[in-house]
Amino acid sequence: MLPSPAPVLETPDRRERPRPIRLWQPRRVLATPAALEHAHGRAMLDRAEALGLPVERLASNRLPSPREPDPRRAYAAAKATLALTVAPPTKLRLQPIPPSADWRFDLAEGCPAHCQYCYLAGSLQGPPVTRAYANLDAILGNLEAYAGRGTVTSASAERAQEGTTFEASCYTDPLGIEHLTGSLSAAIRHFGAWDAPVQLRFTTKFAAVAPLLDLPHNGRTRIRVSVNARAATRYEGGTDPLDARLAALGQMARAGYPVGLTIAPILPVEGWEAGYAELIRAAADALAGVPDLDLTAELITHRFTPGSKTVLRGWYPGSDLPLDEADRVEKRTKFGSVKYVFPKPLMQAMRAHLTTCLARDLPAARVLYWT
Fold this sequence. Notes:
- By secondary structure, the chain is an alpha/beta fold.
- It has 9 helices and 17 strands.
- The protein has helices at residues 39-50, 71-79, 136-141, 178-181, 183-193, 242-254, 272-287, 306-315, 344-361; strands at 28-31, 55-57, 81-85, 95-97, 101-104, 108-109, 114-115, 130-133, 164-167, 198-204, 221-227, 236-237, 259-266, 295-301, 329-332, 338-341, 366-370.
- The strands form 4 sheets. The chain has an 8-stranded mixed beta sheet. Strands 2-1-3-8-6 form a 5-stranded mixed beta sheet.
- It is globular.
């Protein structure tokens, strides 16, 4: 038997209680003058006002600092704020995003969810305000220059059929804010009309897909739902229920979209073997009977950095998410930074189990990578 040196998370063995799908309602909407110079910025402002949200038109393009001196209150205030801003020029210089996609582009930055393992804690600086970008025409118009130039999927024999791939959910969950922005729908239409071997990709922990079902996507957008074993979903505050996410995936697949599972972050929760097996069976049930199913799976284990641990402990001081370096293996990136991953025997056991379950219960799924 393979050893499991990482801690096991104690979680009661019960199914997720049903929760309704709720659309995020920020308590504060900030509109910068630069954002309102763009038609998309004004459209986002109209959406917020139509929902009766409190809107502040700022006198300058600088976002105000949090009003709360207490770090926890400042975090909560930032998480409840939507800012309508303009993406800076640096956002138009796209970066590769291996192993997911050829290029990353951002419709927004920040996320309304409260995941206790959030990797954005180590990626973004400052208060976690969600910033939605108003210069959408420039963002989408910039993509054509990168078509055919990728090295992650378009240069891969195994994934070349995906074409040049553009990831839209690296720094946000675009579906979680779509009712306020409309940016994701615009991007799907843009790719649907783009007659080239290209693909828009996004992953989500939300389920409000109704506005997307009838869009002219032409098979050039792949939606993936980010899912986990039920025992780990308690770390995913502010997201839609697991069953709702899987049902939404089934709806999108039946609307002709390529779809995917992002199983992340894989954790050694109590009874993890049964938990992940049940997750994959539930996904199979949600996708049963879909004609010409185009399904991928991305398997991502939990990891953290010293910086993200510090931020997450500040944001969620009561969390029992395991962040003990003694139970992990130190791994250095090509840039020399440090991250902590699970020991090799546990990684091997989890990988073998999940890939076996996928092959048995979801044989249509193409596993794109394990990391």
